Amino acid sequence: MNARATAPTGPTYPLGAVVRLTGLGEHTIRAWERRYGAVTPGRTPGGTRRYSAHDVARLRLLREGVEAGHRISDLASHSDANLERLLSPPAEATAPQGSPLNAIRSAVERLDLQALDGLLSLQFVTLGPEPFARRVAAPLLCEIGERWEHGESSVASEHLLSSVTRGILGVALRAASANRSGPRVLFTTPQGELHEFGALIAAIVALSAGAAITYLGPNLPVDEVVGAARQLDADAVALGVVRLAPAATRKYLKELRKELPERVALWIGGPVRGGPFEGVEQLDLDEMERRIGRMVRTPG
Ligand code: B12
To answer: If you ran DSSP here, which 8-state letter would residue 6 be given?
Structure first.
């Protein structure tokens, strides 16, 4: 029996997100809870289920067990440690696969969507959103991108990795939208800049540093960013810039800085060219984290 009685700490996931992360149907998840006490999700004040990362990881283990031929009624009463022991294949069966990143690389090269989704989702629930974004998503996207540039990996591989990673990071963002305390930071990319992963990953890092984030998606014109910043009473606007030409970047940032209220900080990150830009702070992830940490400690 899963005996967790306290409310989950850290991000929590609605049922729809858990369906996506575990590959189980809604009906199955509810039935496993009701009949076997497989997990005990928290509840919102309105009574809606909210699952912790631990619940998600446990449901994945249970699914693996059922797929391997065990009965859920037998599995559900085991502790997580027992389940892992019961389900882990003999050492020689896992040895050739090596690290999780190697298994992910191999699934990307084989264009094996199901394996890739499963492996990335498992890393996500095991590590949590921020370490997943920083330690798994960012290096893999860069690496597969480099391999593609050198003709060692196909466009299809790169697209498959991008689309599965985007889906999982999207789940992290939805779970994040509940946090409305802390400095309010909007994330987007300038009009013409479609590379969104940098801004997306930065948003997840900012969330874990204590910010109330809003990710607006990529490719926004200046007036839209300004409108959103006013509407949401933002403390900072953070942009990811990857390939936008230096002149276009300069023009965009100049206009945006002019239109944004003075009190709103303007941050940019990514391999941006053409700086420094007046009134704009160029940050990497660590520096952004420190800024947010300071804003959390000294609000206003
Ligand atoms: C995926 C990808 C795409 C995808 C983007 C999908 C998406 N939803 O984002 C698609 C297919 C749309 C695309 C399109 C194009 N792409 Co492209 N793309 C890439 C690729 C393979 C990976 C980029 C990526 O996601 N990297 C991973 C992220 C996490 O890295 P990152 O952005 O640098 O972010 C990190 C840091 O910089 C920092 N960071 C980034 N933003 C921010 C923001 C803040 C606030 C902070 C604090 C930190 C921060 O933190 C992140 C984590 O470490 C690269 C190749 C490569 N080697 O990078 C080419 C690449 C970037 N693309 C390139 C090009 C040329 C294009 C196209 C013009 C191709 C074409 N001919 O159509 C178009 C242009 C589209 C446009 N108008 O923007 C070039 C850019 C060269 C240049 N400097 O001009 C590259 C380098 C490939 C190449 N060598 O040709 N691309």
So the answer is: S
